[in-house]
Amino acid sequence: MLTYETAHMIGDYMCWVAISLAAIQLVGLVLFISVLESWNKGIWIFDRRIWTLFNSLLLMAAFSVIGLNVAQILGDEKDRLTVWTQIFTACNEFCYLYYSWTRSKTIVKQVLPPIFETIMGYIVLGVPFFLCAQILLAGIPGIPPIACLLTDVGTGSSVVVFDAILTLSFIIFLRSNRSNSSTSSDPGLLVVAQQGLLACFACCLVLLAFLVCTVTFPSPLSSVALAATWALECLVPMPLIVMKIRIRFLVKGGDDQELAKAAAAAAVALDSIETNAGIASKSLTLKRGQI
């Protein structure tokens, strides 16, 4: 029979695996940005043009996964959901939402009515307020449960709607490009749709783990499911990092001159967004509570 002690041991093991994977992502991304991108653009690795907002968001996402799982391991046995856990979770969600929205809004505009773009814009602007409220409430003792519940519902429902719209737009876009094979599509947008769909799938895994945690609370299985929720967060930045790398190599490669030109145009547009974008929010729904 699963005991709390065994559950916490299993949870800590999963967190260490997630820390290792996130560290590999972080190191690989730093090497890619500092070496390959600087070489390709012909500028020094410490140039501000290399360390764009988007690059910073990806680095912050990978680092926040490490911090989140370290906080889970070091957290008090009676209160595994610490203030630091909320801070790192908020950072990770913010990075995911803002990065995904800025990369994907062109696809949403193409395949869905304007109302969906408006809804997603409001979500990206509104979720940071809920995230900040969650951090503040986590640090104040004696807060009524209803206050925590309201912030959880606000964040969770917003992110679910955001992911649902993204998933729908990616599926429509990819199916449309398959059926219209004669039409040449922007290869950069195809990469965004493919990798974005994987990121949405990773978010679904995290939400599923948290659902198991909620349904089985309180029990040792709930503790394992909560640790799995934090650990699975390491899968969310991975498709976004691969998205960036694929687009860059798409620009460099190519026997097909038209493909290279289209990819280059996509990358130039993305670089422009990276340089001039302003700030908003991130990923998944995770409630506050004691396990």
What does this structure look like?
- The structure is a single chain.
- The chain is mainly α.
- Helices cover 78% and strands 0% of the residues.
- It has 9 helices and no strands.
- Helix 1 runs antiparallel to helix 2 (53-74) and helix 1 (4-41) packs parallel to helix 8 (237-252).
- It is globular.
- Residues 253-291 have low confidence and may be disordered.
Brief digest:
With 291 residues, this protein is an all-alpha fold. Helices cover 78% and strands 0% of the residues.
Q: Runs with pLDDT <50, length 5+?
A: 253-291
- Write down the Rg: 20 Å
Helix content: over 70%
Task: Give a short account of the largest sheet.
Answer: none
Tally of DSSP β-strands: 0
Strand content: under 5%
**What is the chain-wise order of helices and strands?**
HHHHHHHHH
Protein topology:
Elements: H1 4-41, H2 53-74, H3 83-111, H4 114-138, H5 145-179, H6 187-215, H7 220-232, H8 237-252, H9 257-276
Helix pairs in contact: 1-2, 1-7, 1-8, 2-3, 3-4, 3-5, 3-6, 4-5, 5-6, 6-7, 6-8, 8-9
Features:
disordered C terminus; 0% strand; globular; 291 residues; mainly alpha; single chain; 9 helices
